[in-house]
Amino acid sequence: MTVDQLETLLAEVSLPRGVHAAVLSDSAGPTDVWCPRIVVWANRSHSRCPGCGQPVAQDLSQDVPVSLNRGELQPYSQQHPCGEWLSILWSEVSGTGEVTVVDVERAAHQLAAEVDNEHVRLRAAVEAQLRQDLKQALQRLAEPLAHQETREDREDEVRTGSDVEPGVYRGEQWLAWAFDPTGISSEPITVTERNLATARS
Ligand SMILES: [Zn+2]
Fold it and tell me: What's the CA-to-centroid distance between 50 and ligand 1, angstroms?
């Protein structure tokens, strides 16, 4: 199929939210030698670089993550200036014969499902870390005070956040919280003393 035919086909495709598609033609030569291809890719799952914590662009609608060169799909570098490799989910659309609208939609939905799984994994990892942090803080709070140490000193020692800064702090009860790593929900992830107690019993 020609680039124009594939572009026409893509125009008919309805993509899940956060998933994009593009026709790639070969940068190395005439497209009658190297067949054009369709790739689908997803927005970035992280709102911040996992390496350095800096915010990263999540909307990748304008950033095709691969190029086509002599018939080979080559991913562009996704290395953040800090050295961390930022993951991008993408795949090539393949069909049994000529690519159809259904083939593109199937690939796009598969990718969307992978993105959902990744979001669940990322949130679970943050929650596990929060549990760990809060547990350690509570253990330290339960230890006897040293000579001349006040209760307040001890609480200052374990406090790493506040109601606006992520970390461990005491509201109505001790809790640890963090922003949603996927940036999708404005609802933070929170683990409270009570959550830990419930998990234990
Ligand atoms: Zn970084």
Answer: 6
| pLDDT score, position 185 | 83
> What are the structural domain ranges in the chain?
3-119, 125-200
* Residues 93-109 as b or e (16 or more Cβ within 10 Å = b): beeeeebeeebbbebbe
Residue 76 CA to residue 10 CA, distance in Å, equals: 22
Mapping DSSP to helix (H, G, I), strand (E, B) and coil, where does residue 4 land?
A: helix
Distance CA 130, CA 143 (A): 20
pLDDT in tens, 138-158: 999 999 999 999 999 999 999
Distance 146 CA to ligand 1 centre (A): 40
pLDDT of 8 reads 94
Measure 67 CA to ligand 1 centroid, in angstroms.
23
Q: Give 53 Cα–ligand 1 centroid separation in angstroms.
A: 6
Can you give the pTM of this predicted structure?
0.83
With a CB cutoff of 8 Å and minimum separation 6, the contacts of 111 are: 19, 40, 41, 42, 89, 90, 91
